[in-house]
Amino acid sequence: MVNTHSSCLPGSTPYIIRAGDTFFTLAQRFNTTVDAIMRANPGVDPDRLFIGQVICIPSSSPTPPPPSHSCPVLRMGSRGAAVVDLQHRLLNMGFNPGPIDGIFGQRTQSAVISFQRSKNLVPDGVVGIATWTALGVNCGTTPPPTRCPAGTSPYTVRAGDTFFNLAQRFNTTVDAIMRANPGVDPNRLQIGQIICIPR
Fold this sequence. Notes:
The protein has helices at residues 23-29, 34-40, 81-92, 106-118, 129-134, 163-169, 174-180; strands at residues 12-16, 54-58, 152-156, 194-198. By secondary structure, the protein is α+β, with helices and mostly antiparallel strands.
């Protein structure tokens, strides 16, 4: 079941699922509980969330949308608050980066690579916009994939394209296209945007 804006109860607001979102990370981000989100979304399976799905987020007090994150590019040797943020996010998603010390070392790099593989991103150990977005960060932009994962080909979006008609045209499924493009909002495709199409 997918909620629409009108089906959210008073005291909750609609939210569009992005890559990497889970009820756990949303509960943390919006200062609520997993149980409260589940109660606000009867019929939504928390293990089968998909990008573009609209759910209801309960709010005890009006919460402004999360601010855009600067999304700095992090790699081996990076240090500072952004690395601490990265390490916390990796740990919350079940990828152990080692000590939360703000130092991008080998254990953090290994956790990043494992996370990138789990999201069908290029497993290069470099944290750019696509990886931040998959970690649930609002970078204020839709990252164009620079390289498409193995088994997919780059495609430039044209007027009228949707994931549905692209799935039909290329003999694949909407779900497969969504998995190949974590962080891309299927409701906000832009002409000239490059996405990856499964072969």
